[in-house]
Design goal:
The chain is an alpha/beta fold and 480 residues long. It has helices at 42-45, 84-107, 173-184, 192-200, 202-208, 243-246, 252-262, 312-321, 332-337, 339-347, 367-385, 401-405, 426-434, 450-465, 473-478; strands at residues 4-6, 11-13, 16-23, 60-65, 71-79, 115-127, 130-139, 147-155, 160-162, 212-214, 220-224, 236-241, 297-304, 326-330, 351-354, 391-392, 410-411, 416-417, 441-446, 468-470. Residues 1-44 have low confidence and may be disordered.
């Protein structure tokens, strides 16, 4: 996620537009694309088409994060049935990023703000036999703004993962690169030597040309990270070729990707042998709860970072067995991917709260960026449940005046931290609650970890025997 500040003028040369943009942090647009606009230029103004991930059968979002603000990280990427080679490529890149980041954390002296790595995802196309995904990384240990993007492509017809450069036919790459270089080297902050050096090494081209996506009208937008083809101070460069210009250069896969972007077929088929459809619990409970927490022992279990296609449904089943209510602080990207699970949470009498769009440290963002993160997530929750949330939990528990002023949502922290993200052991997580819980505690857990969900039956069984009642955060607050 990021916000771009466009330079005062856009250079339009024939059927090609070139933009240099400065980045100013995470959030901006959901897909992490540069917004290019100029009256009369359809290619420049045409956005990259958005995709509804809830329509992708069997989709699983692979997500994980730390809760240590001194070395904060959150990462998520999609796992789509049939595209295992592409998932493996994303997993490898994410794990490499995390390894490098953790090493930087270990080598750095503690700072007041801490270090942060955030990796988010957006679907570019998911139609026919074509899948395209962009990963956007914000690394606050890196030089400059630390913002990088990479697109990943899957060719269902061939059963093969493709890099962004795979959109261009081998026989056309010379012409494509020549046209691309001629446009870039005329921009402020670049010169022929800088551009030639970026493309000189054949083995380096795939790394430099790693962010390509089709616009809604069939043009091709190529985006370069800060410092790749120009001086870092000039920011990000983006080139958009019109459909008429780029189509002759495209590979057979590129043409199919272009077609499925412009006119999506409405369904995705990558040849998966099986497309799992997780069962969604149908338990129903009234949103009203007559538990009097002034007379009985109450505790509020809270679960962050979901919903998870793999684990949330199981957790809801456990809660229903004990007529327990909980509060789910959901991540917007996961809500959009799995609205059916969020509906199931609310239908069972649980509370659904806001945990931002892609789990950044909100205190490192501008007021506008914080509002974007929270508003997009609240809209997704309302679309799924029919009710907008009233509570939010800031990632890492990080909140300041800027965050508070950006939203009318009420912040919620916790009184008992299980540290379940740090200790993947169900028994240890259960004992972290059972041995420490007090009346009216707000317990922090995560429903993206299987061991955390596995700990819940023991927690419910033991505390119910002790006379505890499980209520939502809003219910607990109303009683205090």
């Amino acid at each position: 996620m990021r916000t771009r500040l466009l330079l005062p003028s856009l250079l339009l040369l024939g059927s090609v537009s070139v933009t240099a943009a400065c980045s100013s942090g995470s959030s901006g647009t959901a897909s992490g694309t540069t917004a290019e606009a100029r009256p009369g230029s359809s290619s420049a103004a045409s956005p990259v088409r958005t995709v509804d991930p809830s329509k992708i059968k069997g989709l699983r979002i692979v997500s994980d994060n730390s809760e240590d603000r001194s070395c904060a990280w959150a990462a998520g990427y999609p796992d789509v049935p049939g595209a295992s080679a592409m998932t493996a490529a994303m997993k490898k890149d994410v794990e490499q990023r995390l390894s490098t980041f953790r090493a930087a954390c270990d080598d750095s002296a503690p700072t007041a703000d801490g270090l942060e790595l955030n990796i988010s995802h957006a679907f570019l196309v998911a139609s026919g036999d074509v899948l395209g995904v962009r990963l956007t990384t914000q690394d606050r240990t890196a030089a400059g703004d630390g913002l990088t993007r990479r697109t990943y492509w899957y060719d269902g017809k061939a059963g093969a993962y493709r890099t962004a450069l795979g959109l261009i036919a081998d026989s056309s790459r010379h012409s494509f690169l020549a046209a691309l270089k001629s446009r870039i080297e005329r921009r402020d902050g670049t010169d022929p030597d800088t551009v030639n050096e970026a493309f000189a090494d054949r083995s380096n081209r795939a790394a430099v040309l790693d962010d390509m996506a089709f616009t809604a009208d069939g043009g091709l937008r190529i985006t370069f990270d800060r410092g790749e083809v120009g001086v870092p101070a000039a920011g990000t460069y983006s080139v958009t070729f019109s459909k008429a210009t780029v189509t002759p250069w495209l590979s057979a896969f590129g043409k199919r990707a272009q077609q499925q972007t412009v006119r999506p077929s409405g369904s995705l088929d990558l040849g998966a042998s099986a497309t799992p459809t997780p069962a969604v619990p149908t338990h129903t409970a009234s949103g009203d709860d007559d538990t009097d927490c002034r007379r009985v022992r109450c505790v509020a279990l809270t679960f962050d970072d979901g919903p998870s296609a793999a684990y949330t449904a199981t957790l809801l089943t456990y809660l229903a067995r004990y007529d327990a209510r909980a509060t789910f602080f959901t991540v917007g990207q996961n809500v959009v991917a799995h609205p059916e699970l969020v509906r199931a949470e609310a239908r069972a009498g649980n509370e659904v709260g806001n945990h931002s769009l892609n789990h950044p440290d909100l205190t490192k963002l501008s007021r506008r960026q914080v509002a974007y993160q929270l508003n997009r997530t609240s809209a997704a929750i309302k679309a799924a449940t029919g009710k907008a949330p009233t509570l939010f939990r800031p990632p890492y528990g990080a909140v300041n005046s800027t965050v508070r002023q950006a939203t009318r949502l009420s912040p919620v922290l916790w009184t008992l931290d299980t540290e379940d993200w740090k200790y993947p052991n169900a028994s240890k997580v259960a004992q972290a609650v059972i041995s420490k819980v007090k009346r009216n505690d707000v317990v922090l857990m995560h429903d993206i970890h299987p061991t955390s969900v596995a700990a819940v039956p023991e927690i419910l069984r033991t505390l119910t025997a002790r006379g505890y009642h499980f209520v939502t955060v809003s219910h607990l607050r109303a009683a205090m």
